[in-house]
Each structure stands twice: as structure tokens, then as C-alpha cells.
Specification:
Length: about 110
Amino acid sequence: MDCIGLVVLSHEAAGYQLADCTTYSKQPNPDELLHYIGLNFTRQHRDDPCEPGELALFQYRKRGPQHAALITESLGLIHTWADVGKVVENDFDARWQRLFHSHWKVKESLWRP
């Protein structure tokens, strides 16, 4: 499972019907990723604090966002980590804050009770 798969499945389990991103690759195109995220989520102001359940995007080498994680209740991160082949939880520490690109809330209109 990749990071977008984790986001889609987590939100489906919570009752949301997200459009799936089938073109997401191991080296994602930042423009395609932002387009897909924009279909399902609303971007939050960068200075607003992250909240549990939000999606966080991360960029490497200033290429734009290429990784996604979910913000936890303790304001940590749940994401997939290709190097270990697992879903992991990390602190939202200085390393992740340096890579932080943006945070997003799921569109409530996508909730299907």
C-alpha cells in the first residue's frame, strides 16, 4: 500500500467516498498529486494549526509535494514508509516539519452515511 492508498482506505472506513488516484506512482508528479488532493480535500491556511484527521503533504528537494500522511490525535503522523514496507506512526518532529508542504481537510460533501 502507498501513502495515497492509506488515505483513501482510511477515509472510506470513516464513511467518505473519495475519488481514488490510480495514476499515483512511486515518484509522484506534484501537480497531479495536488489536483487529486484538491478533488477530495480543502487546503488549510499554512499558519493554521494542523488538526487530527487532516491530511499533510510533504515535499522533498523543493519539487513540490510527493508524500502524504494523516495527522493523529497526538498530532503525530500515520503514513506508509516504503523503506520498511509498512504503515508507521512518527512524531511530527523537526525533520517532518522541514519537509511540510501543506495540510488539508476532507470535503464534508464526500461523507456518505
